[in-house]
Amino acid sequence: MSQQATEQVHGHYIGGEWTDGDGATFESENPATGETLATFRRGTGADVDAALEVAESAFPAWRNLSYIDRAEYLWDIYHELRDRHEELGEVVTKECGKEISEGKADVTEAWHMVEWAAGNARHPHGDVVPSEVAGKDSYMRRKPRGVVGCITPWNFPVAIPFWHMAIALVEGNTVVWKPAEQTPWCGQIIAEMFEDAGIPDGVFNMVQGFGDAGAAITDDERVDTVLFTGSAEVGHEIGDKVGGEPGKLAACEMGGKNGIVITEEADMDTAVHAAIMSSFKTTGQRCVSSERLIVHEDVYDEFKARFVDVAEAVAVGDPLAADTFMGPAIEADHVEKIREYNDLAREEGADVLVDRFELEDSEIPDGHEGGHWVGPFVYEIDYEPDLRCLNEECFGPHVALLEYSGDVERAVEIHNATPYGLAGAIISEDYRQLNYFRDHAEVGLAYANLPCIGAEVQLPFGGVKKSGNGYPSAREAIEAVTERTAWTMNNADEIEMAQGLSADI
Ligand code: UN1
Hints:
single chain; alpha/beta; seven-stranded mixed β-sheet; five-stranded parallel β-sheet; binds 2-aminohexanedioic acid; Ald_DH_N; oxidoreductase activity; oxidoreductase
């Protein structure tokens, strides 16, 4: 599929064939204009069933290839992602509304993950473990688990699928993937890449569709591991359902109510820069975006004044234009959700400092009147741990300023007082405060003097508490898609047991 939208209805990629199925059609929309980009077929239980069947039958031959041979298919895709960087970055921006540097970064992050996973094929896998018996050798060997179901979100429509699939495939699993219903065009292009790479039939399968197709994947007993990145609501459902079944594994990475601590020792330029990036990049629609800024009373007024100035000024507009900082929200329903959270903050006592939720007509670029526009919403509120607006994820450019007094321990206490624990940052020039945050912030990703967005692929990406139960990415994803065999071999003539156990018979 090229960068141009077409009239055709695009189907699923199952067993090396493009199939249509009999599901209803749905459209991919450009959230900056409201225009239809392309039409797709909605996956049904029958499509998922067909994909799982071929994925299961392709598994034995695929697992018997060497790691390095499996990785070769991924290297082809790596080169294609690089060669088509500009074009694909533009597709990402058109389909999910992220400004163009972010659209391109999504593609870059994808090839970084492919590079990491495929490069890993030439690294040692497993461990040699000493035995207490001189004549024995013990090893830990990894084996693929079988069929991996991958369910990915719209906000990183190219990178996150590769977080899941590059690792699952190199490790010897076969894959059934459902792209987000908001970004099927990216799904189509990725499936075409696997087809072009000549991956054996049935090893990679893509079924377009909505939550019902996702549930058909996660509910099926042929699926050995589910990798999920997306909302906490769906992730917990999958975690409970799949994780509770013997022999099945789920690694889910969900949202956050991420916070940044700005202490009395903070450099203000860094603080404002990091907070703006964290709160408004991707229009606040990253699972790592920050919705809470926890600021020491000594620097509160200065930070507030500077943060508000920049939040008033950041450019919201055409995501394809080079000087745009924020594109639109993903869809009309999501604009309503953001509105509800802005209203909720007001009801809970917020003093609103910046309200650009409804953009001025003059801010909306020509030809973009049908876009799902929202701008920054910044408020201050007296801190109380149970306020809903400080505990629930809005997933938009909606951010609270919270003033604290006392030491960094108090700031971290406020920082940790949400059910989530994905990402967080501290801004301070005092290394003791930084170290305190590193050791006590309840998050999977912690940053010092940086935004809390922008993780690199070789780091474990996942959260604690309500943010996740596993790492569907990088090194830790290998744990979710492999089984370990502890292999012990006797090199002596006699059997000798460990723990002094008698071997006499
Ligand atoms: C997400 O927020 O949904 O760390 C994923 C980051 C990106 C991935 C974000 N590498 O901001």
